[in-house]
From TrEMBL:
GO terms under cellular component: membrane
Name assigned to this protein: non-specific serine/threonine protein kinase
SMART domains linked to this entry: S_TKc (SM00220)
Enzyme Commission number: 2.7.11.1
Region of interest (Disordered), residue spans: 725-763
InterPro entries referenced in this protein's UniProt entry, alphabetically: Kinase-like_dom_sf, Leu-rich_rpt, Leu-rich_rpt_4, LRR_dom_sf, Prot_kinase_dom, Protein_kinase_ATP_BS, Ser/Thr_kinase_AS
Record-annotated Protein kinase domain positions: 441-715
Ranges that cross the membrane: 367-392
GO molecular function: ATP binding; protein serine/threonine kinase activity
Binding site for ATP: K469
Locations listed in the record: Membrane
Keywords (A to Z) from UniProt: ATP-binding, Glycoprotein, Kinase, Leucine-rich repeat, Membrane, Nucleotide-binding, Receptor, Repeat, Serine/threonine-protein kinase, Signal, Transferase, Transmembrane, Transmembrane helix
Keyword Lipid metabolism attributed: no
Length: 763
């Protein structure tokens, strides 16, 4: 029995058979149970109603039978209940105990005919109600629309008759009522609320001769609305007009909004807000974007997702180059862009973009014309022959020079060249230089690695130690992705972030050159591998340093970066035990010529992964906060987050007793901390902060900036100056640190850029 499990997310997995009764227990603390879109049969098990911590229950789009159990009333914390598109029979039970319920969908079941349920008006939190095709009859009582939060009501394809009258007690939040294909013959429109969009198509009131009222039009599942003016003249060659009627090749794609808080496509103000919000985002972060537009807005009738096409127009010219296109795409595919809250979570699927800007082709053409004009004429054949031989020799000589001095000239995913990277403080190394400083990549300098390849220790001619991450064949990025990667990494400069010194893109090799961090990862120190002893005060400084590095990536990096794999193996310790965040960059673009879109590989590490990821498939800044909270608990226990089947977050929550000293967590603490337990000032506040970071819902977690401020306060309680950077100096190191081995183990410093364990994204 998975008593500590919070989420069962098994939607759209082709599951069949019955839901076993033994799956649920009153001792469980489940929050989400998602079994939608499968082939499940049988009845809803009565044991499900014992899990009174549930907030979301999705059983829709299956083949479930039997009665809808009245025991669902026991789920008093339930907020969303989806039972639509099954084969339930019997009558709809009274669910008045579900006072937290804001979404109810029981549409398209084979229920017995029944009058409109009066208990609906007793649900104070109800916002969305869907009861399509369940044989409801009788007039709708005036009180039916009175729940104060009610916004959307779908009652189409029933047998509701007589008069539709909203009365005077309807919700002032009400926006959309769909009563298509019922038996309503009289409609009394509300006098004080013109916001309500009512659809009565297919009712007797709309079958009267000459009735052309707006409420008699069928609800469209798409609209021709566009933020591009219809007065713009047509563009040629596949170009599109932007909102200023200038023609260009835009970057395009489609938003899939899963749960917008509004219904219907008539309120175009919402779409204007979206367009302005996206424009503001690009302007704020100085993206190479002139303007944006939205169009082709439609609803997926099967799962009620809202689909919106997006067009992003380039700044200053008619098309994007490949780097610009990638930056724009990353903003959406990596969830850097956050839409207005009314649109809810989204997925973005980009269309292929092939109309790249090539600044060099016209120059080549002009040069060809000049050369042709110069040599045309006298002794044409001889001059052309001599010029050809000369040009061939010069070209080969230039190519050799380019190979040595400017490898970027080769970088291309098409026939057009890619501009050299715009770097800030990073140097280009040749393959020969890398070979020399690693003694021909000798085994003695092989200090670790992972799925992407190996990490080598090297020494520059200046004597500086470096760490070289060398991609193995099969893990190589395309030139564009590698270029974008090093451009991003070269802009990151913070004392608590591992610094990129340079790179090598030569002889079909891709390498990144970092500063060498001699004391390895935090996990090495916590496990005893490094021989470094970490007392309470050192652990506080490490928490502060790594928190500052992560806060920098979120709030001050340009563009902001979501790490996506915060863990103790990705926090390195330098010679002064200063914490440095490692392993951040771009996720590999997954491009397939046979497919029509680009996505990103997302992989975190079990034990550190945000619980919300299992529902949204997206990682955000708050996902990093969750991983950091796990690291904070790891600093206390010294153990990996999952060890011998026990999860550190759950263990701390279960054993914690705030009324006792050290919250009664002594048996979980690392022995080094226990040895100094008489001086653990700030311990309780530290635990409180860590548990806030690992809240189930991201909205309840603090930002990394707030986390840093609170750790600084805790350090002051412990008598430390938070402005002193290091956790130690070299003179205070234990003798055990000498000769402790290479710091880059198999699990540390995993490269995110192109390789299977992609970690992080620009935000």
């Amino acid at each position: 029995m998975l008593l500590g499990t919070k989420h069962f997310h098994f939607g759209k997995n082709k599951l069949s058979g019955v839901i076993p009764k033994t799956l649920f227990s009153s001792k469980m603390t489940l929050i989400h149970v998602l079994f939608d879109g499968n082939n499940l049969t049988g009845e809803i098990p009565d044991t499900l109603s014992l899990v009174n911590t549930l907030t979301v229950l999705r059983l829709d789009r299956n083949k479930l039978t039997g009665n809808i159990p009245t025991t669902l009333n026991n789920l008093t914390n339930l907020q969303e209940l989806y039972l639509a598109n099954n084969e339930f029979t019997g009558s709809l039970p009274n669910l008045t105990s579900l006072t937290s319920l804001y979404t109810l969908d029981v549409s398209n079941n084979t229920l017995e005919p029944s009058p409109i349920p009066s208990w609906i008006s007793s649900l104070p939190s109800l916002a969305t109600l869907r009861m399509e095709g369940i044989k409801l009859y009788n007039p709708i009582p005036n009180s039916f629309f009175s729940p104060p939060q009610l916004q959307t009501v779908i009652l189409k394809r029933n047998e509701i008759n007589s008069t539709l009258d909203f009365g005077t007690s309807y919700s002032n939040q009400l926006e959309f009522v769909d009563l298509q294909y019922n038996q309503i013959d009289v409609y009394r429109q509300p006098s004080s609320n013109t916001r309500i969009q009512v659809i009565l198509a297919g009712n007797p009131v709309c079958l009267e001769l000459g009735n052309s009222a707006s409420y008699c039009s069928e609800i469209p599942y798409n609209t021709s609305y566009s933020t591009i003016p219809t007065t713009c003249p047509p563009c040629d060659q596949g170009r599109e007009a932007n909102p200023s009627c200038r023609c260009a090749y835009p970057f395009t794609g489609t938003f899939y909004f899963r749960a917008p808080s509004f219904s219907g496509l008539f309120n175009t103000t919402n779409f204007d807000i979206l367009q302005k919000n996206i424009t503001g985002f690009f302007n704020k972060f100085s993206y190479p974007v002139d303007s944006v537009a939205v169009r082709n807005i439609r609803e997926n009738a099967a799962d009620h997702q809202l689909l919106i096409d997006l067009l992003v127009f380039p700044l200053g010219r008619g098309r994007f180059n490949e780097t610009e296109m990638s930056l724009v795409n990353f903003a959406f595919s990596n969830q850097t862009y956050k839409p207005p809250p009314i649109f809810g979570p989204y997925i973005f699927i980009a269309d292929p973009y092939t109309k790249f800007y090539d600044g060099g082709s016209s120059k080549s053409l002009n040069m060809g014309i000049i050369i042709g004009a110069a040599v045309g004429g006298v002794i044409l054949l001889l001059l052309l022959t001599l010029a050809g031989v000369y040009a061939l020799r010069q070209r080969k000589r230039a190519d050799r020079a380019t190979d040595q001095n400017n490898p970027f000239a080769k970088w291309s995913t098409s026939k057009s060249s890619i501009d050299a990277p715009q770097l800030m403080g990073a140097k280009s190394f040749t393959f020969e230089e890398m070979k020399k400083c690693t003694d021909n990549f000798s085994e003695a300098n092989d200090v670790g690695g992972g799925g992407y390849g190996k990490v080598y220790r090297g020494i520059l001619p200046s004597g500086q130690l470096i760490a070289i991450k060398r991609a193995q064949q099969g893990s190589l990025q395309g030139g564009l992705e590698f270029k974008t990667e090093i451009e991003l990494l070269s802009r990151v400069h913070h004392k608590n972030v591992v610094r990129l010194l340079g790179f090598c893109f030569d002889r079909s090799e891709q390498m990144l050159v970092y500063e060498y961090i001699p004391n390895g990862s935090l996990r090495d120190s916590l496990s005893g591998k490094s021989g470094i002893r970490l007392d309470w005060l050192r652990r506080l400084r490490i928490a502060l340093g790594s928190g500052k590095g992560l806060a920098y990536l979120h709030e001050l990096a340009d563009p902001p970066i979501i790490h996506r794999d915060i863990k103790s193996n990705n926090i390195l310790l330098d010679e002064n035990l200063t914490a440095k965040v490692a392993d951040f960059g771009l996720s590999k673009l997954v491009g397939d010529p046979e497919k029509t879109h680009v996505t990103t590989q997302v992989k975190g590490t079990m034990g550190y992964l945000d619980p919300e990821y299992y529902m949204t498939n997206q990682l955000t800044e708050k996902s990093d906060v969750y991983g950091f909270g796990v690291v904070m608990l790891e600093l206390l226990t010294g153990k990996s987050p999952i060890e011998k089947g026990k999860y550190v977050v759950r263990e701390v929550k279960m054993k914690m007793n705030k009324s006792r000293s050290l919250y009664d967590l002594q048996e979980l603490l690392d022995t080094t901390i226990i040895a100094s337990s008489s001086n653990l000032k700030g311990f309780e506040k530290y635990i409180d902060l860590a548990l806030r970071c690992v809240e189930e819902e991201g909205v309840n977690r603090p930002s990394m900036g707030d986390v840093v401020k609170e750790i600084e306060n805790i350090m002051q309680l412990a008598g430390l100056n938070p402005n002193v950077d290091s956790a130690s100096t070299s003179s205070t190191y234990e003798e055990a640190t000498k000769g402790s081995g290479d710091p880059y183990g198999k699990d540390s410093f995993q490269y995110s850029g192109n390789f299977p364990s992609s970690k992080l994204e620009p935000q």
